[in-house]
Structures are given as C-alpha cells and as structure tokens.
Structures
1.
Amino acid sequence: MTLSRLDDYFPKNNELVKTKLGEGSGEQLLEEPRKEEASEDQALRNLPPSYFVSATYDGDVNLACIKLYNPDSKQIYRWYDNTGHKPYCLTNLTPEEIKKIPRVADHPGFEDVEVVEKYDALQDRTIKVTKIIARDPLSIGGRPRGCIRDIIPEDYPKIFGSEKDPKVWEAAIKYYQCYIYDRKLLPGMPYRVRDGDLIPVIDKEAEENIKRILETSFKDEPKDLLPYLESWIRLLEYPAADMKRVALDIEVYSPIATRVPDAEEAPYQVICASLVDSEGKKRVLLLRREDKRGESEEVDSPSDVDVIFFDDEKALISEIFRALDKYPFVITFNGDDFDLKYLYHRAQKIGFRRKEIPIDPGRRVYLLRNSIHIDLYKFFYNRSIQVYAFAQKYRNVTLDEVASAILGKSKIEISKPISELSYSELAKYCLNDAEITLELTSYDDDLVMKLLLVLTRISKMPMEDVSRQGVSRWIRSFMQYEHRRKNMLIPNQEDIISVKGKTTTKAIIKGKKYKGAIVVHPVPGVHFNVAVMDFQSLYPSIIKVHNLGYQSVRCPHEECKGNIVPGTNHWICIKQRALESALIGSLRDLRVYWYKPRSKDKSLPEAKRNWYNVIQRALKVILNASYGVFGAETFDLYCPPVAEATAAIGREVITKTIRKAEELGIQVLYGDTDSIFLKNPSSEQIKTLSEWAEKTLGMELDVDKLYRYAVLSSRKKNYLGVFEDGSVDVKGLTGKKRHIPRFIKRYFDELEKRLAKVESPAEFEEAKEDIKKIVQECYYKLKRREWEDINDLAFEVVLGKSPETYTKTTPQHVKAARLLEKRGVEIKAGDLIRFVKVIKDPYVKPVELASDDEIDADKYIAYLQSTFDQILDALGLDFEKIIGLTRLEQFM
DNA sequence: GCGGACTGCTTACCT
DNA sequence: ACAGGTAAGCAGTCCGCG
C-alpha cells in the first residue's frame, strides 16, 4: 500500500446504506472490493508519522512485520523488515562444534554461525559466544520437536561427551520481540516510512520539554541514572494518539437455553452482531431466521443506530469482517475466547476461504491481520490492573460487574434464552454489550486506551501483548531490551540460581521462601492526632539506593564482600550499578519527583494533568511489582537473594526509623512494612525525622495521612482512622470485608458514621453510648429474628477452585456449592457462593435454597460479636456487657 | 466415645 | 503466575480420660 492510495481506505467505500426494514439483504455486499493482500502491503514505501502499535512475524514472507497506526487516516499499515534481520540464538559451543552436530548443521532452518562478544554480567566479563542464525524463528524454538535450542543439549553429549555443559541462550524470546530489541525500536512511539525505511519521528517540542524536565527536576540525581531517566521521559512525554476503534459483540444461536455453544466447533449460526465505534457510529446486524418467520422485524432503536437485516449468515459475517479490516483497533470483552474465536471457526465451517477471514488464530489468542484486537477481559483480569489501576473496584471479571463498578452501567437483563428473544430484544441486548464494551475504553478521557499506550511504551511490547500479559512479562520485556541495548548476555534462570544460590532467611509463614516485612504490634486504644508517615515506594527506593539486581547481589568481586546486607549473608557490589537498579530506580524517581506531583498540579491544563495521571498510575502498577518479580519463579530473571535482600533492607530501614522516632520522643503506635503511626508529633519532630531519613537512609519519609484520631485494635493490619475532614479510613476490619452478611455490615457502617462525628476526646463518652445502642439493636434484631430479607444474612465467598478439588477439607462455602450442584447448578472456580448458616446438618445452605425459619441466629450473634470486638476492645467496651444490659432491658 | 488443644486449609485482607 | 505477613473461621486430628 502506498500513500497515494490512502484515500481509498476511508470509510466512504465501505459505508453501508441503511437498509430499510424488511427489504433488501446483505448479499450484494459480498461483491464489494476487499482490502488487498499482504503482498501488496510490502510495497509500503512512504508513510507520514504513525504510531508503532504492534509487531509480528509474518510466516508467509518470513519477515518481521510492524503495524503502524496513522492518526490522520485512522488506518493501520504494515511495514516489513528491509534490513535482513534474522532469528538467532546464542550458545557456548564453538562454530566447529555446531557444525559437527548433524541435526543442527543440516537443519532445514539452519543458516549460519558466527562468533560474537557479549558482556556476561554474572561473571563481570566479556565472553565469546556463538550466534546460530536461522532462516525462521520456529527452527530455533517453538515447535514441539526438533528445534535447534532443544537439539544442542540433546546431541552434544552423544557427540562430545561431557567436556562442557552445553548452553543455549536467548532462544525463548519471541522473534518479534527480538527484532524490537535489536533494532532498538520503541513500541507506542511515532515512526514514519521514507523510501521504504522505518524512521523514528523526532518531536522538537517534546525534545525540548525533555531537556527542561531533566535540567529542572532531576539535577540532583545520580549521574549514571540520567540516561535512563532521559529515555523514560521521552517515552512518556511524546504525544499520544487518539485511537479510533470499534467494539464488537456477537450473539449466536443455541438450541439449549443454558449452554453457550463451543467456539471451536461453532455449530450454530451467528444471529446478531453489534459494532459501536468511537466516533458515534452504531450498527446492529441481524440474521433473518427460519425460526422467527412471521415475527415482527420492527426494531425499536434510537435514531443513531443502524439496524441491518441479512438473509444470509455468510453476508452477515462478511460485513463483520469488513469492519474488522476497516477499524484500526477492535475492542471485545472475551473475544479471544469467544467472539473472534467463534467467528473464525464459523467462517471456516460455512465455506469462507482462509484469506477471506481477517482473523489470525492462536492457541489462546485470536488476533486480527490488519488491526489491533484488544480483549478487555484479559486486561481487566490482570491482577495488577485490578488492584492498582482500578483500586479493586470490581471483583469478578464479567462485563456486567466491571461495567457496573466502573461505569455504573450494566448488561440488559433478559428473562429468556438468547434464541427465543425477538429481533428487537436481541438487537437491544447485543447493542448494549457493545456499547458498554466501547465505553470501558472511552470513559475518563480514554483512560484505558492511554494506559495501554503508556504500558506499551514502557514495556517495549506490542499493544496486543501488553493488554493480555501480566506485569512480570512487561518488566521482563523492558529488562531484556536493556540487556540487548548494552550488549549483555541475557542469562538463563538456572545460570542466575547456580551463581547466586537461593535464600538464607527463614520466613514466618510456612512454605514461603524468605523473611518479609516487619509489622509492629499496635498500641490498642483511641489515639488523637496521629500522623502516618511512610517511605515513598520503599522497595523500589531500596533497589535504587542499595544497587540491587542479579549482577550486584553476591557479585564476583572480592572487594565487595564486606558490603553485607544486614540480617543476611549477601553482599552487594560497590563497583558497578545493576541494570535493574538503574531501570527500577529511574522509574521510581520519575513517578515520585515528576509524574505524581504533576498529576495533582491544578495549574496545569486538565488534559495534561490527565495524561500525567495515566502515566503515574501505569508507573505505580509496574513499581509495585518490581520487587516481587525477583522472588517469583515464573520470572526469567528470578533471583531470590535480590528479593530477600530487598526485604531485609526494608526491615532495617523501618526498625532504624522507629528507633529514631522514639529517640526524638515520639511514641510509635503502629507500623507496617514502610509506614509508622506517630502519636501527636509536633511538626518540628516530623521535620527532624524526615530529614534524618533523607540524610542517613537516603530515602524520603513523608507524612502520608493525618488522622484526627485513630482506633487501633490489638490486632495487626486492623485499624480505623478518622481524617480531619471526618472521612473514615478502615483497614482490615471484618466489618468491612466483602464476604460478611449485609445485615452485619450495615450496623458496622452505622458505627463508622457515628465515629466520624467525634471531634475530641470529650465527645467520646456520648459516642460510646450511641455505639452501645447500635450493637444492641443489631443483637435484638437477630435474637428476635427480625431480618427483612434472608439475602441480607448471606455470606458471600469466592470459590478458589472447582468444588471437586477440595480434598483436604470441605469449607462451608464448598458445602454450599455442592448442595447447589446437586440441584443441577453448574459451579466453577471463581464463582461467588452465597450461603447462610442454618440449624441442621450440614449447618449451611445456599441462600436461594434456605428459608427464614431454619436460620441459626446464634451463629450470627457470635459472628456479630467477633466483628464488633475488633473495635469495641479499643474503645474499652465489652460486647457481653452491652448485651447483658439488653437482656435486662428486655425484662423491664 | 467425647471434648479440648492443636494443626492445617481456606479466604480476605495489608503493605 | 510479583512478594510475604496477619486475621479469622472451620475441618480434621490427636490425646487424655481409670
């Protein structure tokens, strides 16, 4: 495709004319011109500035392929490698040895060997390794049998004996990632194509801005971090694209009401599809069906919706495919596992040729040939996204729950099976799904799309992968990128373990690998004027300040062995900064010194502030995981001593800080990992402590929260704080946990509200009386069995795994789940089980099967007591006594 | 055969 | 497929008990 033909790709060609109800069909649409094949795409000679959004390997032409999104034409263009880059892996065998292994030398994919130098960070020296170049990536690795990376360790001993331990490096990196790394490409950033070459676009304004930021806000940084800071800032300050997109949702026929047809078999017709785009265009495609013959085709829909009937399923699917080709970004909710999967297999089944289907099937993903498919289910499923980007607003990852939590909108409830809906009901239902799917990407000024773009840039991964993979893959990717950039050998996991060993400290929790953070025993009671101070990103700070990384922990130098991490026998390198320390440290400083403050800076224009907020949140997600990955076996640069050293230094930091605070005469009420609760400190004391931390620990200790007063129970990770403005901060208390019955939770909320009103110690006495009344009332209601709705008594517990896999014990929610199964309800891992406690064996029942008179009220009273005790003991109140009064009152 | 002390399993939470 | 630490409830087991 060339620039001169850009115009041909604008929608006007493919635009559908709204078909009048009851007439015409989609048939003739099949005859319309299709987008041309990949071979013509290769002619891409020139392209104005466009965003690098994805990279793949195209097996048909054996080349790396970059997908570029042009924000003016709003189209995706494919650019193919023209540099002759080839797939490869590295080995410690010599070229001569390689040539003597017939299965490698005669491998159809084998191309060449050459000797290259790499820096081996584990040994701190440059080594010579052999680069095995292949004709295609699958010959290196990826096929189940006969890959070069597997043959080498298999055949070497047979031919050469055990003279050396045969090693293969960098053979498990996806080829397109390898291409990105080697060519130092920056996904998410603007590029142009000129005379067939891919060239980065320099944005003068952004470049000047970068310089300014570095000069003004980072002048005190360690010098060796400056280049890292500069590259991160560039990635984050360059402008973002507006991404035109369409949300797709399909409905399929099913003869069995409760069963969704298997997407691989795709046995039944696609009966409806909705396409809702970011420019306000909405279409519903409906299949005219035999089983609906004679029914009204009147679809009552808003005027901005085009409803189109098709007589033929093939024509309907063709129209969907046309849209999939036309839009640069396609959004689904669970498209990998259903919508696109079904369409792909259904299309094959009803006679489409492979070339006519714009979908690239994978094992677990279904990508699009000419666009970017974002499956929001995968994105919202991501734990880090769930917890840090969306503050745990949603629990179950269903379209309905995510949309209601984030947008306040839900799916349309339908009372009959999909196949029995009228055309109008079906259209509405399907359209609504597509609308909320799109809105999940557009709310809050396109937050999700921007997050994806920012994460794409940081991680150096294609946008499709970023949206599907977890935070540890993002971190791995930018670390691998940095290895290649510095010509460092990327070590195998076992290389790191064999040099660095495992951990030496003993975890408190059985089964854990090493000791973690310190939690200080709280001083129970009510404390007025509490300041909570914490270290900003403690673990990333430690990684930065103490130079932690796989190469620096237990480094090979004698002169470093005295630099011991307290509480461990690990030492840290004093000669050279580890890559991870530089990467994580610079990201940390960027968030703390630049993006977080700017995201709150009211003097900035809103759009700018908003963008900074997106960045700040993306950085938070990555930083929060940056220590944990070193202790995760699933991480390629897994290095337990690094994780262990980080935690050990953390303990040292918090312990010293507590000691210092006490020296300054401040009472420390509580502390957890990186925070300390100080009783009524003067601003002088706070300032002194903060300056001390900066000076002696090299870390920022700031006031995070100020409580008018805090109620500490005797339990760790359990407290309540009331801010100056009267808002309440509840942590860990049972009364706030999501699984407890609403009935109890309501009374707990009452208590919370009452506590919020207390302004001074003097006001506490009155509050205590009111709190007694609240507890009494709840007790009364239970004792007298005066609940309104049995649903309010339900415990709601998530099933961690499928019911039959509980073999060691049978927890109550599993008992309830099994009762449901007996009734024919399908139960799977992740389902929320709602049950009540009843008098008769097995003492629990799913709430939908239980009646009021079998409820065991005393069990609820016991639960009420333990829930309220957490607060009552801190207030000097006693549940039994409160209830005792009630009992007396009952007689009076 | 029963009941209390104990351990282990499970979930939800904190940092 | 980021980590460890804490709380709580219940299931299951052990052990004493003439």
2.
Amino acid sequence: MFSKACKYAINAMIYVATLPEGQERAGLKEISKAVNSPEAFTGKILQELVKHDLLHSVKGPNGGFHIQGDTSKIVLSEIVEAIDGDMLFTGCALGLEKCSEDHPCPVHHKFQAIREHLTGMLMTTSLKDVADRVNIGISFLKY
Amino acid sequence: MFSKACKYAINAMIYVATLPEGQERAGLKEISKAVNSPEAFTGKILQELVKHDLLHSVKGPNGGFHIQGDTSKIVLSEIVEAIDGDMLFTGCALGLEKCSEDHPCPVHHKFQAIREHLTGMLMTTSLKDVADRVNIGISFLKY
DNA sequence: ATATTAAAAGATAAAAATATCCTCTATTTT
DNA sequence: AAAATAGAGGATATTTTTATCTTTTAATAT
Ligand code: FES
Ligand code: FES
C-alpha cells in the first residue's frame, strides 16, 4: 500500500508530533530509534519532508527536527504525497496509463469507492489526531 | 497498492476469462499482447498462477492457457494472494511487525475499515463479473 | 576564533522487483 | 519417428527501492 519510505515518514512525523509544544527538537538518532527505522535512510526521508515544508530542521548542537505550527493542520495525505507521490490517489489500480471514467479498467467502478474511502481518511486525519493516540498510550510507533 | 506483477496477473486472468467457454486456449504471446505486459515476465507470472491452480496450461502446438471450471468461482483476492501474498490483507499499514488490536499502530482503527472494504470487494468480485464488463465493451484491459 | 555538534548532500552498496534470454520438456502434427 | 510448437525452468540482466557511508555546511558552545 505504502512504500517503506512512506511508512517511515508517517511514523517519524507522528513521533515528532507527539513531542510537547515548543519543546527541544528531536534528532535523527532519537527519531529513528523511536520508530525503529534505519537511521541513514530515515535521514534522507526527513530531508524530503523538510523540502516539502512538512517538517523543519535546525543544524548544529541541540539541532534536530520539529514541526512548526499546528500539528492539526498537517494531514496524512500530505506526507504520503510528499514521499510516494500521487499514484495512490490518481493512478489506475490495474496499471492503465490513466484512471478515467471514459476508458476504465475492469475494476475501476469498484475501486473508485475504495480509493475515495482511503483518500478521504488520509485527507481528514491530522497528525494531531494520531499523535494524541500515541501520547495517551492507546497506539504504538514500533514493534 | 498492487505490485506490477500482480496487476499483470489480474489483467491476464481477466483476459483469459473473456474467452468464450471451451474455446481454444490463449498463448502467452496473445495474452501479453492483449494486456500490454512484457511477454517473458508475464510467462513467469502465469507459471505462478498455474502452480496456484488458478490457471491451467497445455504445452505443445495449439497449447496455451485456459481456466478450467467456472470463472465465477475465482475471485480477485485469490489472484492477489497468489502473487503478492497476504500482506495487503493482514499486514500493518505503518509497518508494525503485526497488525493487531492489542498493539495497534496509530492508524489501525481507521485503516481497519478501509482494509475490510478493500478485501470485501476483492473477495466478492469474480473473474466473470469483470470479464463480462470487458466483453460488453464497457471496460478495458490496456492503455 | 575554535571546536563540537548535527543535519545536508553526495557517493556507494545491497536488496528486491522487474524484465529478458536460453535451454529443457511435453505435446502435437507431419 | 521426426520436426515443430509452446510452456517450464533456470540463469542472467536491468531497474527501482532500500540502506549505508563519507564529506560538507550551518549552528552552537567553549
Ligand atoms: S481506470 Fe483503473 S482504477 Fe480507474
Ligand atoms: S496495527 Fe497498523 S494497521 Fe493494524
């Protein structure tokens, strides 16, 4: 469904979102440990998220990553799109060059509903929504 | 969502299912042309489908592939599982070692519904359902 | 100012997925 | 029986994804 890179990205963003407001930033090492992802690879992914303005980074001592602004303003679909692109949202499930009503693949009509369900969920679920669940201890970022 | 191999597999199975009952089998060349997939790679995938008893093959002149029995008895989820395995149906969306209620990832509760929607659709959509759509010309296997 | 810290950037490496090619085997036709 | 056909199986190649390592750059602390 999502690439590994995308899963790491989502988990990392959630972890950063769980940090108390205005707290010191989290370093790469801390983040990759918290979400059980390979450190160097995670670094690349965080760079990408920074480029997409979903995350901010600070170099040097006590540097690290943080989210500026409200975590309720960032939704999961933004993270997915930043890392995996929009094929999940717009591509044909069976690999036709483009997904369209005019020239639909054999599962288009059935898939449409699922896609809408999925994208609707990703577009309405904020980082705050999911980070809160982690903070109160009812969901987990690793194992 | 699905691997390329799985998309080729689904399209190929649908194509074979569109052939009139009891007709001569379709050869690899014919199939891969019909669904616009790379021939040799498609051959490997069809082998796998044969191993999973979703497809039958005959060697030699006028050989090829066909489905024995009723195409309404084969559902899409069987093809997906044969090629991509069951991670789509049972794996955690965010990469936790296992998906469970006891130790859920932050999107588990939201994902559960989508997964059920998706697997429900794949388990109830038969090859005949989709092949019929192709035969009456309202959906397409390539481009 | 200098040393230290930590992310950015670039170069490689390893693994997995996709794709092709060649030989072997079974079947059919002549 | 021999030749031709077409899938099976194995080996190899390419591409993409995942992962690591090294160097550079920016910020901080001494
Ligand atoms: S055309 Fe295949 S999903 Fe829309
Ligand atoms: S635990 Fe992640 S989807 Fe169920």
